[in-house]
């Protein structure tokens, strides 16, 4: 049985004081839903304060990125050693980082391996563009992204890895994939690749999230899919009520 995981990717939102005030309100609201792993993903500047504000709770913190080197001439970047005591997770390969920061498949792989080497669990995001989707390339493209991201990662480390399927055309657009589409790619493509790479026993332990315009009114549809183990949430993770509702629905649909 895989523990459902709902992670909020705050993207470039909330100042430092806003981040702290938000998690102080969020933590008690999320407290009852212990059957679901709950994760918040603030900006780098708020990581230390949010991590401190959540100490003593079971809500985990994720960074929105990571570099693969421990130090060096990489202006603007954050090394794993700088955040390893502050976070449980790091989001890697988000389509916005791939598009705006030029993050490549090779870098995603280096970052995932560096995260694991520093005790940080990677949430590896994959997903196709609208053009690829319309050209019928979704499965081959997403499968290829997953294989590239996992190159050299051992079966032993894989249960620490989370994969997030986020079709680019569904991010922030209000246009979400249907539950059936999410299940087809997550079960039919991503878990099939994991089975091919690591065997069924390991593959069945790995959590795969859906992301892209997840809202309280479509959450149950995703959570009722057998291979969808949670959600990576942007907009709806910025409001206490909406994020709590998502976690509550995950707890109800997935069972205790
Ligand atoms: O990119 C996302 C999460 O990483 C999804 O964002 P939205 O939930 O705002 O569509």
Automatic annotation (TrEMBL):
It is found in: Cytoplasm. Keywords: Cytoplasm, Gluconeogenesis, Glycolysis, Isomerase. SUPFAM superfamilies: Triosephosphate isomerase (TIM). The keyword Membrane does not apply. InterPro entries: Aldolase_TIM, TIM_sf, TrioseP_Isoase_bac/euk, Triosephosphate_isomerase, Triosephosphate_isomerase_AS. It comes from the Bacteria. Its EC number is 5.3.1.1. The active site is at residues 94, 166. Pathway: Carbohydrate degradation; glycolysis; D-glyceraldehyde 3-phosphate from glycerone phosphate: step 1/1; Carbohydrate biosynthesis; gluconeogenesis. Substrate binds at residues 9-11, 172, 213, 234-235. The keyword Nuclease does not apply. One of its GO terms (cellular component) is cytosol. Involved in the gluconeogenesis. Catalyzes stereospecifically the conversion of dihydroxyacetone phosphate (DHAP) to D-glyceraldehyde-3-phosphate (G3P). Belongs to the triosephosphate isomerase family. PANTHER family: TRIOSEPHOSPHATE ISOMERASE. This is Triosephosphate isomerase. The gene is tpiA.
